[in-house]
Amino acid sequence: MLRLVITALLISLTIGAQATTNTQTFTAGMQALKRGNYAEAYCHWKPLAEFGHAESQYHLGWLYANGNGMYIDIQQAHRWWRAAAMQNHTDAQFAIGLSYINGEGVKQDIPKASKWFLLAARQDHQDARDILMRFSSDPNFDVISANPALIHETWFGQQGIIVAKVANVRRAASTKSEIVAQLPQNTRIKIIGRTGNWVRIVLAKAGSLHAAWVYKTLTKPVGNRTSE
């Protein structure tokens, strides 16, 4: 039993020492970057990135993306960002989302970009949240259909209220669309999108949440964006 305890302690000390070394090496790379010595930064970060150090993978990606001390290689940048993103590195997830929007290193893919932004947004990345909110009013891209889970996110959307005596809630943004619910005046709603004269809201129905539409003049925003 004592041998097992000693072995576990040695393993713990080894891991701790390695983590300290990784941090020191990464910091040395950041200091080199600030001096404009990109080659030195690369030499510090590349071994760490290959070892699986997410922060080094992310910053190494930017060296490739910007061509700092080397040729610009967006595909390599994307490779290292993805390696970091798979370890839940928030900024790497956001960087991948941007690369899919711009079509740099990968084929432009807005739905795929939105999925990476959602991963970052769930880790409190404000820029990712802002982009997803802008998508919610984009007539060319239905961010809710691409990411149905968004309607469950407490940070996504804006609080509102029904101002008409009764508001018809419709399946689609059209007066010809099926009425799926009727909400009385002063009902609190969560607005998650806009298109033309319609607002998209979260509708609680049959124990689950759905996205539905209400004519804009029947509603009124009553605060800032939803917050956790």
Explained architecture:
The protein has 228 residues and is α+β, with helices and mostly antiparallel strands. It has 2 domains: 2-145, Tetratricopeptide repeat domain (Serine Threonine Protein Phosphatase 5, Tetratricopeptide repeat); 146-225, SH3 Domains (SH3 type barrels, Roll), CATH 2.30.30.40. The protein has helices spanning 2-34, 38-51, 54-66, 74-85, 90-102, 110-121, 126-135, 143-146, and strands at 158-162, 166-170, 179-184, 188-195, 198-205, 208-215, 219-225. The strands form 2 sheets. A 5-stranded antiparallel β-sheet has the order 6-5-4-1-7, with no helix packed on it. The protein has a two-stranded antiparallel ribbon with strand order 2-3. Helix 2 crosses helix 3 (54-66), helix 3 runs antiparallel to helix 4 (74-85) and helix 4 packs antiparallel against helix 5 (90-102). The relative contact order is 0.08.
* CATH second-level architecture of the largest domain: Alpha Horseshoe
Per DSSP, the total helix count is 8
Strand order of the largest sheet: 6-5-4-1-7
- What is the total tally of β strands? 7
- The run of helices and strands is HHHHHHHHEEEEEEE
Helix share bin: 40-55%
Largest sheet: 5 strands, antiparallel
Distance between the termini: 47 Å
Looking at CATH, the homologous superfamily of the largest domain is Tetratricopeptide repeat domain
Count of the separate structural domains: 2
The CATH topology of the largest domain, please? Serine Threonine Protein Phosphatase 5, Tetratricopeptide repeat
Q: Radius of gyration, Cα only, in angstroms?
A: 24 Å
- Overall 3D form: elongated
- Quaternary state, please? single chain
